[in-house]
Amino acid sequence: MNIGIIGSGKMGGGLAKFWAKNGHNLMLSYSRDIEKLKSQAQSIAPGVRVGTPAEAVEFADVVLLSVPWAAVPDALQAAGSLEGKILFSCVNALTPDMSGMAVGTTTSGAEEIAKLASGAMVVEALPIFAEVLYSPSRKFGEQDATVFYCGDDAQAKQTVAELLREIEVEPIDAGSFTPCFHALVDTIVALFSH
Ligand SMILES: NC(=O)c1ccc[n+]([C@@H]2O[C@H](COP(=O)([O-])OP(=O)(O)OC[C@H]3O[C@@H](n4cnc5c(N)ncnc54)[C@H](OP(=O)(O)O)[C@@H]3O)[C@@H](O)[C@H]2O)c1
């Protein structure tokens, strides 16, 4: 599968390594330092490409959005039309100092992203903390880490669940978007980040 990555930092770069190992074609995009992005692409695997967000969308079957919440509008504007694309978001709608929710508790980051990414099939998942992603194993004792995901398109969710299995976690379908679910998940993340 072709995966375009918008925001190749701790999460985007870490996920890219797993997916490259599993044989996917990757294009990284959206950096304030294009030379850093190019060298990161080389360090992930031979053949990993670098492009603009719009090129990554054009290239991709699945687009990963992995930027800080504050950068979401700019990143999605640079991405252009996402019509018909699976948009896998691991974005948490946190304030820049991570002290709280940037969107309050009556909506969620994913729902706001879905509004901006008109026509995309948005699936939100929180693929664990970056530290766990870079650990030798995603197991807690004998137990695989579980990762909740949600979205309104069944096929898109199935595709994202497969990509989550490739990072060696157990994906759990949390249903369709509900503000309640996201508020809960985002609150848990905010609590853990202190
Ligand atoms: N870290 C975690 O444990 C974790 C876990 C679950 C979810 N998340 C969520 O995943 C998303 C990405 O987190 P991360 O930890 O991967 O962040 P990060 O390491 O800071 O990566 C952000 C990426 O966005 C790029 N970027 C481009 N323009 C930017 C701008 N104007 N401002 C900020 N970044 C810009 C950065 O590229 P350059 O620096 O090269 O410009 C970088 O590649 C966030 O929404 C976060 O809440 C994080």
What order do the strands of the largest sheet run in, or round the barrel if closed?
3-2-1-4-5-6-9-10
Helix content: 25-40%
CATH top level label: Alpha Beta
The CATH topology is given as: Rossmann fold
Radius of gyration: 15 Å
Sheet having the most strands: 8 strands, mixed
Low-pLDDT stretches are none
Cofactors and ligands present? NADP nicotinamide-adenine-dinucleotide phosphate
Order of helices and strands: EHEHEHEHEHEHEEEHEH
CATH architecture: 3-Layer(aba) Sandwich
**What percent of residues are in strands?**
15-25%
Class by alpha and beta content: alpha/beta
Number of helices: 8
N- and C-termini, Cα separation? 37 Å
Give the topology.
Layout: E1 2-6, H1 10-21, E2 25-29, H2 34-44, E3 49-51, H3 53-59, E4 62-65, H4 72-79, E5 86-89, H5 109-116, E6 121-125, H6 130-133, E7 139-140, E8 143-144, E9 146-151, H7 154-165, E10 170-173, H8 179-192
Parallel strand pairs: 1-2, 1-4, 2-3, 4-5, 5-6, 9-10
Antiparallel strand pairs: 6-9, 7-8
Helix pairs in contact: 3-4
The structure holds NADP nicotinamide-adenine-dinucleotide phosphate.
Task: Sum this structure up briefly.
The longest helix is centred in the last third of the chain and has 14 residues. The strands form 2 sheets. An 8-stranded mixed sheet has the order 3-2-1-4-5-6-9-10, with helices on both faces. It has a two-stranded antiparallel sheet with strand order 7-8. The chain contains 8 helices and 10 strands.
